[in-house]
TrEMBL record:
Domain Metalloprotease TldD/E C-terminal: 221-442
GO biological process, alphabetically ordered: proteolysis
Superkingdom of the organism of origin: Bacteria
Keywords: Hydrolase, Protease
GO MF, one example: peptidase activity
Listed InterPro entries: Metalloprtase-TldD/E_C (IPR045569), TldD/PmbA_sf (IPR036059)
Protein's recorded name: Zn-dependent protease
């Protein structure tokens, strides 16, 4: 019996015990989270720390006549021990519920459904990965972090809903440092290791590293033609994801895309955005017990669907579509364009090649206007040739400009950017994004 099946059966056993322990009108939802991960840290191209983490936990919600409370339980993997821990957690919630008010926006799924999805593509052999990283980084100062392994999610409820999801993935996040302290940042993530694809990513980073030794090109504040690499565009999309596609944020007039969803503004017809659950690492069910499907968020620059969680549905009379807490996308995908990778510098002509952005925030949230800094490998390009690195600069511009009136092209090739966060546990959130060529980007200092 493989690991995923053992985990699933262990979870099913806990669910059966919980259902048998319910009293009268009590209802429950139960979420399972687990990972078995390999972590490796690199410094100067060598392994400095390696380890493995195996952990699993449950989040139990008990509901009784409109009152509800939650508790988290760490699991041991032993059936008897975990049944005992879950029984104790159930008793603690029973004692807590009478002290709480009725929740007017509690909306539980009454559906009985089954969902099982095991993405068990063979993970890359760690020894092979280490050999390829060592070979590709020969002669350069590489600092990086590699994580790999299966992540599992489970859901069950007193309404006989049951979901199980496992996704195998890896993520290698690294920087190459020049002797002058400048660095190029890159990443490679996926479900199946492709040696040639990794080699191309590393080669691009090494080529950019060579340009960092040149004297910096000094720019004055102003508007410049620019290319945003997928990693830079991801920072913009991550900011938009904080409420941009949320039904609750729109209803309370706090969405940065308020004008878009109200029909008062639009993006470029080149921009189409989907919550693409079916082709991601994310489970096809939410922690609230609602099945998730692919959603069209923006279609050819025009607003389409929004992410609707149960509380928004209850408060504003909407239909739940399985949005995660916070109503942010977890599998955002932007449609590709027609700009070939080999033609990026030629089409840019003269302007900025921006590999990364950081420290983003809103300077005018209702106008979807952001400010932030260029980061790592940002270069000045003239006549399709990289001339010199550019020191850190601050930009301030609107999404309605960057992905609207000033968007010239998107690349054919898209990069799959998987969350590198390991806070609490590894994540399955991802962005599938092209690069973006814009006619003008405003630099303020």
């Amino acid at each position: 019996m493989d690991q995923s099946m053992r985990e699933a059966r262990h979870f099913e056993g806990l669910v059966d015990g919980l259902r048998a322990a319910l009293r009268g009108p009590e209802r429950f939802t139960l979420n399972y989270n687990a990972e078995t991960s390999t972590f490796i840290r690199f410094n100067k191209g060598k392994v400095r720390q390696a380890g493995n983490v195996q952990q699993a936990s449950l989040s139990l919600k008990l509901i009784n006549e409109g009152r509800h409370a939650d508790i988290r339980v760490t699991l041991s993997g032993e059936a008897e021990v975990d049944q005992s821990r879950l029984a104790l957690a159930l008793q603690q919630l029973r004692e807590t519920l009478p002290l709480l008010p009725v929740d007017p926006y509690l909306l539980l799924s009454a559906e009985s459904w089954q969902s099982r999805n095991v993405q068990d593509s063979p993970l890359p052999d760690t020894a092979q990965v280490l050999d390829e990283i060592r070979s590709a980084s020969h002669g350069v100062d590489l600092v990086g972090f590699y994580a790999s392994g299966p992540i599992s999610y489970g859901y069950a409820s007193s309404e006989d809903a049951f979901g199980w999801h496992q996704a195998n993935s890896f993520n290698f996040d690294w920087s190459l440092f020049h002797s002058n302290g400048q660095a190029v940042k890159a990443s490679y993530a996926g479900a199946q290791w492709d040696s040639q694809r990794f080699a191309r990513r590393m080669q691009l980073a090494r080529e950019q590293l060579a340009f960092l030794g040149r004297p910096a090109h000094v720019l004055a504040p102003g508007q410049y033609r620019a290319y945003l690499a997928p990693a830079a565009l991801e920072e913009v999309m991550s900011m938009l994801s904080w409420g941009g596609f949320s039904a609750q944020a729109f209803a309370s007039k706090a969405s940065p895309l308020q004008k878009l969803y109200a029909g008062d503004a639009r993006l470029s017809p080149l921009v189409s955005l989907d919550e693409q659950v079916s082709q991601s690492l994310s489970p096809a069910f939410s922690g609230e017990g609602y099945p998730r499907q692919d959603l069209s968020l923006v279609r050819h620059g025009m607003a389409d669907q929004q992410l609707v969680g149960s509380r928004s549905a209850a408060e504003y009379g909407l239909q739940v579509n399985g949005a995660l807490p916070g109503e942010s996308p977890s599998a955002l995908a932007m449609a590709p364009g027609t700009l070939e990778q080999a033609d990026i510098l030629t089409q840019l002509g003269t302007g900025l090649y921006i590999s990364n952005l950081w420290y983003l925030n809103y300077s005018d949230q209702p106008a979807a206007r952001m400010t932030g800094m260029t980061r790592f490998a940002t270069f000045w390009v003239e006549d399709g040739q990289i001339i010199a690195p550019v020191n850190t600069m601050r930009f301030d511009d609107s999404v309605y400009s960057l992905l609207g009136s000033q968007l010239e092209a998107l690349t054919v090739e898209r990069e799959w950017l998987v969350s590198a966060s390991t806070y609490d546990q590894r994540q399955t959130a991802s962005n599938l994004l092209p690069g973006a060529l814009v006619k003008t980007l405003t630099l303020t200092l």
